[in-house]
Amino acid sequence: MIDIYKISCYSQTEKTKEKRGEGNIVKKKKAKIVVFIAIILVFIMTFLSFYYYKFLQNQLFKERKVLFTQFADKVSENVEAAFDTFWDQTDTCEQLVCLQKPRKAEEILQGLRDMTEIIPADEKVIMAFNQDGYYYTSDGHKGRLSDSGELSFDRNGSKQQMAVINLPYISSSNSYYLFLNRMDEVVPLEGEEQITHIALAVKIDSLQALFTTSGFKEKCYTYLLNEKGRRLYKNTYSEDFIDGYNILTAISEKAELINGGTMKDFENAFTNGASTAFELNYNGASWFVSNSVIRSADCKLLLFVPTEMISTDTAFLLKGTIIFFIAIMSIFVCLFVATVFSFSQSTMKDKQMLWQQQKVNELLTMEAKLAEEASKAKSEFLSYMSHDIRTPMNGIIGMTDIALKNIGNQSKVADCLEKISGSSQHLLSLLNDVLDMSRIESGKMRAEKKTMNMQMLVENCAAIIEGQVAMRDLKFICEFETYEHFMVEGDELHLRQILINILGNAVKFTSDAGKIIFRTKEIPASEGKAGFLFEVEDNGVGMSQEFLKHIWEPFAQEEKDAHSKYQGTGLGMAITKKLVEMLDGTIEVTSELKVGSIFTVKVEFDINREVQAKEEIKNTNIDIIGMKILLVEDNELNREIAQVILEGEKLIVTTAENGKQAVETFVNSPTGTFDVIIMDIMMPVMDGIQATKEIRASKHTEAKTIPIIAMTANAFEEDIRKTKEAGMNAHLSKPIEPDILLKELANVKWNNRKE
């Protein structure tokens, strides 16, 4: 029994071992199957993930390419619009040279200098070239370009040419874009010299805003290239981003294209002027580059933006996928749960990436919209300005021709001159509006405090408007209350501009047989200050309630289809609003269409009690007969006009043609020869600022005390400051008003009497 039991136990043990062995074999087979399936799954998922990654990367690139190309095109449109403006200004200069018909080098230099009063010359130089390439400039220089490059001055050459130059008399670090225009008709000078080309040289640094783009955290690099890839301009935040002058060659040698095609495709797109975008690797970083064409300048625009600034890096998705596979292989038992979890994580990452892409797309769309709106506003404004400027210009040119043909008919010539004067004043007002708005927006205009007579200011404003109303069937009523404090410290120039703007609009928009009321009074104010209320009421065309919401916006005009009837820039009320705010005042308007409008301005100024007390006992009828004047003016016509005005008031006038002649005349004169000097600012040989400094520094006994009055077309704050720093006592703006000039001379005599 024992043996049988042992055999039986042994047999059961062996069977158990055999079953365990078979179970292990099955487990091993299952494990191999599981491992095999896991490997297959990993392989499949890796393949699918890689395919998905490439697909997503391709789709994102296509979308970014379209948006970035559109954005680059908008930037190039803005640049091209600016270049078109420069070409238009060059055409205007050509027409002015043809009208002036200079015969001497001095005349062409003076003519170019005069153009700067019509065409803003900040950061620009107007140039005239003869048939040999020698130039004359608006800032009084002559010479020849040392780096004219491929510029041609042949009469059979291109009508328009553009190049980057350095002016030898200015620092070599300042480069200029030269817009060269071949004249349709040459202007002969003395000898065999002919003026054949007119050009506008624009300082490259002044155009930086055109190539500066926001929204990419200052990571958008801009290059302007010629058709051969040579760099004309760069706007980068890292000086060593792309070295060398030929950017196309530098990219071909160091860059590797990632998306969009091959390097050959990139070069072909650049050569053919196709607007497109590529993704490339340069110096270890991924960049998007877009090519756009500036057709008016025959050059190309390249924009570089880091890929990471445009969208989420697609490598992020691949990293998540790899982590997902590691989780599958590490926790195979939880394959289903891990798969679901990883899929959900992947979905969330996709959503996050798409959300970020959507935000970037919205940013690009917003930038494109803003660029489009700016371009539209600029085009509309230039259209209005072109029409408004040409209208008085055509009147001036036409009336001049008629006057020349009727030179013996005095009444006809007088009529033409009156119309020329009216057109000139209108043209001047248009240019002043544009310049004022530009200065206000740039922050260059600031309020200035000086003593002023409020009673005299409003009376002068009324006198100016009465002159306009005298030619119309309008009733102009002044309701001025007596001021308790009429001598105050404030900005007389800009307050007068505010009132004239509002009164001028009332005259413009009130039909004949209408009525305009100008009311002023002193109102309660803060301690030590005097408050003033100015109200202008008319029964003119009025304004709709809808337009009143936009009246203070630049270029706002209610009746655009009636623009020719009420000519203007649409800047008057915007300028008025800005000036009132600059004086810490308020302005309000109520209006009803076809009923009329009421404008109300309130301002406060510091009271000057000491000056007021002196002013109250001052003899306002100062006798200026016999005053001895040294009149310094380079323009013969302006000098003759001023001399006639002064001698008509029985003043003794001595003239000088430039600053140097004025200094010599004064220094060599005995004491008491002159009572006052009237000094023009912009003159050849020596300007008024330098002449004043030399007079003040001279050893003449009256060098420190002789009153000097500045006379210039520039009435901006910095111009007034420069005249005061040079030692001038007062500042008069051109065109000179006789009453204002005589009043200033009376003030000079009064001040000398007090001393």
TL;DR?
With 755 residues, the protein is an alpha+beta fold. It is built from 19 helices and 24 strands.
Overall average pLDDT: 78
Q: Describe the largest sheet.
A: 7 strands, mixed
How much helical structure, as a percent, in the residues?
40-55%
Q: Total number of β-strand segments?
A: 24
- What structural class results from the helix and strand content? alpha+beta
Number of helices: 19
Unreliable stretches (pLDDT < 50, length at least 5) are 1-12, 560-564
Structure description:
The protein is of the alpha+beta class and 755 residues long. Helices cover 49% and strands 21% of the residues. The protein has 19 helices and 24 strands. The strands form four sheets. Strands 13, 14, 15, 16, 17, 18 and 19 form a seven-stranded mixed β-sheet that branches. Helix 1 packs antiparallel against helix 7 and helix 8 runs antiparallel to helix 9 (410-442). The protein is globular, with a radius of gyration of 39 Å.
Essential attributes:
755 residues; alpha+beta; 6-stranded antiparallel beta sheet
Topology diagram in text:
Layout: H1 2-100, H2 105-115, E1 124-130, E2 134-137, E3 142-144, E4 160-166, E5 175-188, E6 194-203, H3 208-211, E7 221-225, E8 231-235, H4 247-254, E9 256-259, H5 263-272, E10 276-282, E11 285-294, E12 299-306, H6 307-310, H7 315-330, H8 335-405, H9 410-442, E13 450-453, H10 454-469, E14 475-480, E15 487-490, H11 492-508, E16 515-523, E17 529-538, H12 545-548, H13 572-582, E18 586-592, E19 596-607, H14 609-616, E20 628-632, H15 636-648, E21 652-656, H16 659-667, E22 676-680, H17 688-697, E23 708-712, H18 717-726, E24 730-733, H19 738-754
Parallel strand pairs: 14-16, 20-21, 20-22, 22-23, 23-24
Antiparallel strand pairs: 1-2, 1-6, 2-3, 4-5, 5-6, 7-8, 7-12, 9-10, 10-11, 11-12, 13-15, 15-19, 16-17, 17-19, 18-19
Helix pairs in contact: 1-2, 1-7, 1-8, 7-8, 8-9, 9-13, 10-11, 11-13, 16-17
